[in-house]
Amino acid sequence: AADKIRLIPQDFFAELCEQIIQHLNHKIPGINTAELCQRIQTSGVDINIGDLAKIANILSFLFSTAARNNLSTEELITTLGSGISALPKHAVQVIRHMWNEQGKAIAVSEDAGNMATVGQFVDMKWKLGVAMSSDTCRSLKYPYVTVTLTVADPSGQITNKSFEMTIPQFKNFFRQFKEMASVLETV
Predict the structure, then answer these.
(1) What is the pLDDT of residue 177?
(2) Measuring CA to CA, which of 67, 138, 168, 177 is 20 to 30 A from 27?
(3) Element (DSSP H or E) covering residue 180
């Protein structure tokens, strides 16, 4: 991981650390590694989204473990220095700065930890479409609904999940949402 961290410019590394700390503080639902990876690649750095996601997971583990153990900045930096593969100097500087500025605010509670194992709903988009024809059928005129859910997994990585439904499936989906809304109103 240290080799991949060396590739990331300091400003992007700082942004990644900032997003991770905000996620751990429950200020944002997750880290958009796809968008950040695209910006890093546009700047000329050859890194893939899988490597960036691994780095984000490592940093998230680092910050949450340091918060759980109530480490001071010097204890955290000393612990980082004792690792097998040394982190690049710019990464250690960013981690030191972020931990000094915002690390102590990371909320560590049992309830938050238990909730985080499920993931978090971020956004939902939908569109109505009609399949007009295909190479095997000249006249379909088949309506469908495409739904895209944006979800932050437990580590904070934001992913999109898309699926299509027929109109009867969508009506059932809608009915279930109405049932959930009515139950929530009674709480």
Answers:
(1) 85
(2) 177
(3) helix 167-186
Tell which phi-psi region holds residue 46, choosing left (phi > 0), alpha (psi between -120 and 50) or beta: beta
User: Is this prediction's pTM over 0.85?
Assistant: no
* pLDDT above 80 (res 134): no
Q: Is the pLDDT of residue 186 over 50?
A: yes
Contact 56, 29 (CB under 8 A): no
CATH placement of domain 120-185: 3.10.450
| pLDDT tens track for 29-55 | 888 888 889 999 999 988 888 888 888
Distance CA 180, CA 176 (A): 6
Q: Hey, where are the domains in the chain?
A: 2-105, 120-185
> Strand 120-131 and strand 142-152: pairing?
antiparallel
Residues ≥6 apart with Cβ < 8 Å to 4: 47, 51, 52, 54, 55
